[in-house]
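Comment thread on ticket #2218

A.B. wrote:
> Attaching the input chain for the structure job we discussed in standup.
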Amino acid sequence: MPPPRLHTATCPYLYPSRCQRAHHSRLFSTTTPSHRPSIGPESPNYIHVPRAPQPDAYYRPHIKGILPTPRPIFPIHNKNAPETKTSDAYFAATTPDPSPVTLNVPQAKGLDPSARRHIEWKSKSAEHRRRNLRESLLELRDRKQKTDARSEARVAAKQYQRERLLNAPTPPDEKYTAASVLQSTLPSRTGLQDPDREARIARKRANFSTHDAMKKAERRNALHTLYMNARDFIVTEEKLNEAVEQAFDPYSEQFTNEARRGLNVWNLGYPETVKEQLERANKGENGRAVERSSGFSGVTDERMRRIGEELTGGKI
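C.D. wrote:
> Ran it. Output below, let me know if you need it in another format.
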Protein backbone atom coordinates (compact mmCIF):
# COMPACT_ATOMS: atom_id res chain seq x y z
CA MET A 1 0.00 0.00 0.00
CA PRO A 2 1.54 3.35 -1.01
CA PRO A 3 2.21 5.98 1.65
CA PRO A 4 -0.38 8.69 2.01
CA ARG A 5 0.28 11.90 0.03
CA LEU A 6 1.05 15.00 1.97
CA HIS A 7 -0.91 18.13 1.15
CA THR A 8 1.26 20.95 -0.18
CA ALA A 9 -0.43 23.50 2.02
CA THR A 10 0.56 21.59 5.17
CA CYS A 11 4.20 21.07 4.08
CA PRO A 12 5.75 24.27 2.69
CA TYR A 13 9.25 22.76 2.66
CA LEU A 14 8.45 20.59 -0.37
CA TYR A 15 7.61 23.52 -2.64
CA PRO A 16 9.42 26.61 -1.29
CA SER A 17 9.03 28.61 -4.51
CA ARG A 18 5.27 28.36 -4.33
CA CYS A 19 5.35 29.46 -0.72
CA GLN A 20 7.51 32.47 -1.60
CA ARG A 21 5.20 33.50 -4.43
CA ALA A 22 2.24 33.17 -2.17
CA HIS A 23 4.00 35.17 0.50
CA HIS A 24 4.88 37.98 -1.93
CA SER A 25 1.38 38.04 -3.29
CA ARG A 26 0.07 38.48 0.20
CA LEU A 27 2.54 41.33 0.84
CA PHE A 28 1.17 43.37 -2.06
CA SER A 29 -2.42 42.77 -1.12
CA THR A 30 -4.69 45.82 -1.18
CA THR A 31 -6.92 44.57 1.60
CA THR A 32 -6.75 46.09 5.03
CA PRO A 33 -4.56 43.99 7.35
CA SER A 34 -6.39 42.56 10.28
CA HIS A 35 -3.57 43.17 12.78
CA ARG A 36 -3.53 46.94 12.10
CA PRO A 37 -7.13 48.02 12.40
CA SER A 38 -6.16 51.46 13.78
CA ILE A 39 -4.72 52.70 10.42
CA GLY A 40 -7.40 54.48 8.44
CA PRO A 41 -7.70 54.58 4.66
CA GLU A 42 -6.51 58.18 4.56
CA SER A 43 -3.08 57.18 5.93
CA PRO A 44 -0.19 56.49 3.49
CA ASN A 45 0.56 53.35 5.51
CA TYR A 46 -2.87 51.93 4.81
CA ILE A 47 -1.47 49.89 1.90
CA HIS A 48 1.71 48.16 2.93
CA VAL A 49 4.57 48.64 0.46
CA PRO A 50 7.81 46.76 1.20
CA ARG A 51 10.92 48.88 1.49
CA ALA A 52 14.24 48.27 -0.20
CA PRO A 53 16.92 46.45 1.78
CA GLN A 54 19.30 49.39 1.41
CA PRO A 55 18.35 52.27 3.76
CA ASP A 56 17.84 55.80 2.53
CA ALA A 57 20.83 58.13 2.34
CA TYR A 58 21.21 60.44 5.28
CA TYR A 59 20.43 64.01 4.31
CA ARG A 60 22.49 66.61 6.08
CA PRO A 61 20.62 69.92 6.13
CA HIS A 62 22.52 72.92 4.82
CA ILE A 63 23.10 75.54 7.49
CA LYS A 64 23.36 79.05 6.09
CA GLY A 65 25.98 81.44 7.32
CA ILE A 66 29.49 80.98 8.67
CA LEU A 67 30.39 81.16 12.33
CA PRO A 68 33.33 83.44 13.05
CA THR A 69 36.57 81.95 14.28
CA PRO A 70 36.71 82.28 18.05
CA ARG A 71 39.41 84.53 19.40
CA PRO A 72 42.17 82.57 21.13
CA ILE A 73 42.17 83.17 24.87
CA PHE A 74 45.86 82.34 25.11
CA PRO A 75 47.88 83.77 22.17
CA ILE A 76 49.83 81.16 20.20
CA HIS A 77 52.96 83.30 19.83
CA ASN A 78 53.26 83.65 23.61
CA LYS A 79 54.04 80.33 25.27
CA ASN A 80 53.76 81.84 28.75
CA ALA A 81 50.26 83.21 28.12
CA PRO A 82 48.44 80.42 30.03
CA GLU A 83 50.54 81.04 33.10
CA THR A 84 50.38 84.83 32.72
CA LYS A 85 46.59 84.96 32.44
CA THR A 86 46.08 82.72 35.45
CA SER A 87 48.47 84.50 37.80
CA ASP A 88 47.43 86.47 40.84
CA ALA A 89 48.67 89.72 39.29
CA TYR A 90 46.44 89.23 36.22
CA PHE A 91 43.43 88.37 38.40
CA ALA A 92 44.09 91.42 40.55
CA ALA A 93 44.17 93.64 37.44
CA THR A 94 41.11 92.15 35.68
CA THR A 95 38.94 91.17 38.63
CA PRO A 96 39.89 93.48 41.49
CA ASP A 97 38.26 93.00 44.84
CA PRO A 98 35.73 95.63 45.91
CA SER A 99 37.09 98.54 47.87
CA PRO A 100 36.19 99.05 51.57
CA VAL A 101 34.05 102.03 50.61
CA THR A 102 31.91 99.88 48.34
CA LEU A 103 31.55 97.19 51.00
CA ASN A 104 30.40 99.70 53.60
CA VAL A 105 27.72 101.29 51.39
CA PRO A 106 24.92 98.78 52.26
CA GLN A 107 25.54 99.32 55.98
CA ALA A 108 25.18 103.09 55.68
CA LYS A 109 22.56 104.66 57.91
CA GLY A 110 19.49 106.26 56.45
CA LEU A 111 19.61 104.17 53.26
CA ASP A 112 16.36 103.13 51.66
CA PRO A 113 15.67 99.35 51.99
CA SER A 114 15.03 98.97 48.27
CA ALA A 115 18.26 100.79 47.46
CA ARG A 116 20.11 98.61 49.99
CA ARG A 117 18.74 95.45 48.36
CA HIS A 118 19.70 96.74 44.92
CA ILE A 119 23.26 97.49 46.06
CA GLU A 120 23.58 94.06 47.68
CA TRP A 121 22.30 92.41 44.49
CA LYS A 122 24.84 94.30 42.38
CA SER A 123 27.63 93.30 44.79
CA LYS A 124 26.65 89.62 44.55
CA SER A 125 26.49 89.83 40.74
CA ALA A 126 29.95 91.39 40.60
CA GLU A 127 31.29 88.68 42.89
CA HIS A 128 29.76 85.99 40.65
CA ARG A 129 31.34 87.56 37.58
CA ARG A 130 34.76 87.69 39.23
CA ARG A 131 34.52 84.07 40.34
CA ASN A 132 33.27 82.89 36.94
CA LEU A 133 36.10 84.65 35.09
CA ARG A 134 38.77 83.21 37.36
CA GLU A 135 37.37 79.68 37.25
CA SER A 136 36.88 79.79 33.48
CA LEU A 137 40.47 80.91 32.88
CA LEU A 138 41.79 78.15 35.11
CA GLU A 139 39.66 75.51 33.36
CA LEU A 140 40.64 76.79 29.92
CA ARG A 141 44.30 76.65 30.90
CA ASP A 142 43.97 73.04 32.06
CA ARG A 143 42.08 72.08 28.90
CA LYS A 144 44.68 73.77 26.68
CA GLN A 145 47.53 72.00 28.44
CA LYS A 146 45.82 68.62 28.03
CA THR A 147 45.01 69.31 24.38
CA ASP A 148 48.58 70.38 23.63
CA ALA A 149 49.95 67.32 25.39
CA ARG A 150 47.70 65.00 23.38
CA SER A 151 48.63 66.76 20.13
CA GLU A 152 52.35 66.57 20.87
CA ALA A 153 52.07 62.90 21.77
CA ARG A 154 50.16 62.16 18.56
CA VAL A 155 52.73 64.03 16.44
CA ALA A 156 55.61 62.27 18.17
CA ALA A 157 53.96 58.88 17.59
CA LYS A 158 53.45 59.64 13.90
CA GLN A 159 57.05 60.78 13.49
CA TYR A 160 58.32 57.66 15.26
CA GLN A 161 56.14 55.45 13.04
CA ARG A 162 57.36 57.23 9.92
CA GLU A 163 61.02 56.90 10.88
CA ARG A 164 60.52 53.24 11.74
CA LEU A 165 58.95 52.52 8.36
CA LEU A 166 61.60 54.48 6.48
CA ASN A 167 64.48 52.68 8.18
CA ALA A 168 62.87 49.25 8.18
CA PRO A 169 64.50 46.60 5.97
CA THR A 170 62.75 45.26 2.90
CA PRO A 171 60.14 42.62 3.83
CA PRO A 172 60.96 39.07 2.74
CA ASP A 173 57.86 38.75 0.55
CA GLU A 174 58.82 41.85 -1.43
CA LYS A 175 62.45 40.75 -1.67
CA TYR A 176 61.60 37.29 -3.01
CA THR A 177 58.88 38.45 -5.40
CA ALA A 178 60.62 41.55 -6.77
CA ALA A 179 62.19 41.62 -10.23
CA SER A 180 65.89 40.91 -10.56
CA VAL A 181 67.83 44.16 -10.16
CA LEU A 182 71.56 44.60 -9.94
CA GLN A 183 72.88 45.55 -6.54
CA SER A 184 74.68 48.57 -7.99
CA THR A 185 71.46 50.01 -9.41
CA LEU A 186 69.43 49.71 -6.21
CA PRO A 187 68.55 53.02 -4.53
CA SER A 188 70.85 53.86 -1.68
CA ARG A 189 69.39 54.77 1.69
CA THR A 190 72.42 56.88 2.57
CA GLY A 191 71.64 59.47 -0.11
CA LEU A 192 73.28 60.47 -3.36
CA GLN A 193 77.02 61.08 -3.41
CA ASP A 194 78.15 64.67 -3.95
CA PRO A 195 81.95 64.86 -4.05
CA ASP A 196 82.00 68.53 -5.22
CA ARG A 197 79.65 69.73 -2.51
CA GLU A 198 82.15 71.93 -0.65
CA ALA A 199 83.41 73.65 -3.82
CA ARG A 200 79.88 74.18 -5.09
CA ILE A 201 78.77 75.69 -1.77
CA ALA A 202 81.78 78.02 -1.74
CA ARG A 203 81.03 79.14 -5.30
CA LYS A 204 77.39 79.75 -4.45
CA ARG A 205 78.40 81.70 -1.35
CA ALA A 206 80.74 83.89 -3.40
CA ASN A 207 78.03 84.51 -6.01
CA PHE A 208 75.60 85.47 -3.27
CA SER A 209 78.10 87.89 -1.73
CA THR A 210 78.73 89.52 -5.11
CA HIS A 211 75.02 89.85 -5.82
CA ASP A 212 74.39 91.24 -2.35
CA ALA A 213 77.16 93.84 -2.81
CA MET A 214 75.65 94.90 -6.14
CA LYS A 215 72.24 95.31 -4.53
CA LYS A 216 73.73 97.41 -1.74
CA ALA A 217 75.54 99.63 -4.25
CA GLU A 218 72.35 100.13 -6.27
CA ARG A 219 70.43 100.94 -3.12
CA ARG A 220 73.11 103.44 -2.04
CA ASN A 221 73.09 105.04 -5.48
CA ALA A 222 69.31 105.32 -5.46
CA LEU A 223 69.44 106.93 -2.01
CA HIS A 224 72.05 109.46 -3.18
CA THR A 225 69.98 110.24 -6.29
CA LEU A 226 66.95 110.82 -4.10
CA TYR A 227 69.02 113.14 -1.90
CA MET A 228 70.19 115.16 -4.91
CA ASN A 229 66.70 115.42 -6.36
CA ALA A 230 65.28 116.42 -3.00
CA ARG A 231 66.61 119.94 -3.55
CA ASP A 232 63.69 120.57 -5.90
CA PHE A 233 61.03 118.98 -3.70
CA ILE A 234 58.18 121.13 -2.46
CA VAL A 235 58.08 120.63 1.30
CA THR A 236 56.74 123.96 2.56
CA GLU A 237 53.70 126.03 1.84
CA GLU A 238 55.83 128.98 0.67
CA LYS A 239 57.52 126.85 -2.01
CA LEU A 240 54.14 125.53 -3.12
CA ASN A 241 52.74 129.06 -3.52
CA GLU A 242 55.87 130.14 -5.40
CA ALA A 243 55.62 127.16 -7.79
CA VAL A 244 51.91 127.82 -8.41
CA GLU A 245 52.53 131.49 -9.11
CA GLN A 246 55.37 130.67 -11.47
CA ALA A 247 53.39 128.02 -13.35
CA PHE A 248 50.21 130.08 -13.76
CA ASP A 249 51.60 133.61 -14.16
CA PRO A 250 50.08 134.98 -17.40
CA TYR A 251 52.73 137.73 -17.74
CA SER A 252 55.76 135.44 -17.62
CA GLU A 253 57.71 134.23 -20.62
CA GLN A 254 56.62 130.66 -20.29
CA PHE A 255 53.44 131.06 -22.36
CA THR A 256 53.26 131.73 -26.07
CA ASN A 257 52.95 135.34 -27.17
CA GLU A 258 53.23 137.24 -30.44
CA ALA A 259 57.03 137.44 -30.30
CA ARG A 260 58.17 133.98 -29.11
CA ARG A 261 57.01 130.54 -28.08
CA GLY A 262 56.91 129.93 -24.35
CA LEU A 263 58.71 127.20 -22.43
CA ASN A 264 55.60 125.90 -20.69
CA VAL A 265 54.95 122.19 -20.99
CA TRP A 266 51.73 122.91 -22.86
CA ASN A 267 53.67 124.84 -25.51
CA LEU A 268 56.43 122.31 -26.17
CA GLY A 269 54.33 120.09 -28.41
CA TYR A 270 54.72 116.32 -28.71
CA PRO A 271 57.68 114.61 -27.03
CA GLU A 272 60.72 113.84 -29.15
CA THR A 273 60.62 110.41 -30.76
CA VAL A 274 63.43 107.86 -30.72
CA LYS A 275 64.11 108.44 -34.40
CA GLU A 276 64.54 112.16 -33.85
CA GLN A 277 66.85 111.52 -30.91
CA LEU A 278 69.03 109.19 -33.02
CA GLU A 279 69.17 111.70 -35.86
CA ARG A 280 70.15 114.45 -33.45
CA ALA A 281 72.83 112.24 -31.89
CA ASN A 282 74.24 111.00 -35.20
CA LYS A 283 73.81 114.30 -37.10
CA GLY A 284 72.26 112.48 -40.05
CA GLU A 285 71.16 113.84 -43.36
CA ASN A 286 67.69 114.60 -42.06
CA GLY A 287 68.96 116.80 -39.25
CA ARG A 288 68.51 120.49 -39.09
CA ALA A 289 71.18 122.83 -40.41
CA VAL A 290 71.65 124.53 -37.05
CA GLU A 291 72.04 121.19 -35.28
CA ARG A 292 74.51 119.94 -37.93
CA SER A 293 76.61 123.01 -37.52
CA SER A 294 76.63 122.84 -33.71
CA GLY A 295 78.78 119.71 -33.71
CA PHE A 296 78.77 117.13 -30.93
CA SER A 297 78.93 119.55 -28.04
CA GLY A 298 75.52 118.58 -26.62
CA VAL A 299 76.20 114.84 -26.78
CA THR A 300 79.70 115.36 -25.37
CA ASP A 301 78.35 117.34 -22.42
CA GLU A 302 75.84 114.62 -21.61
CA ARG A 303 78.54 111.98 -21.77
CA MET A 304 80.87 114.00 -19.57
CA ARG A 305 78.10 114.44 -17.03
CA ARG A 306 77.53 110.66 -16.90
CA ILE A 307 81.27 110.02 -16.57
CA GLY A 308 81.44 112.50 -13.69
CA GLU A 309 78.53 110.77 -11.96
CA GLU A 310 80.27 107.40 -12.28
CA LEU A 311 83.55 108.77 -10.92
CA THR A 312 82.02 110.63 -8.01
CA GLY A 313 79.53 107.88 -7.26
CA GLY A 314 76.53 110.18 -7.13
CA LYS A 315 74.12 112.28 -9.08
CA ILE A 316 75.35 115.59 -10.48
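A.B. wrote:
> Thanks. Noting for the ticket: The chain has eleven helices and no strands.
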